[in-house]
Amino acid sequence: MDIIVVFLIICGLVFFTGGAVGILRFPDFYTRLHPAGKMDTLGSFLMVLAVSLFNLREFSWAAVLTSLKILLIVLFIFILNPTATHAIVDAGFRAGMRPWTKKDKGK
Question: In this structure, are residues 81 and 16 in contact, taking their beta carbons and an 8 Å threshold?
Answer without folding.
Answer: no
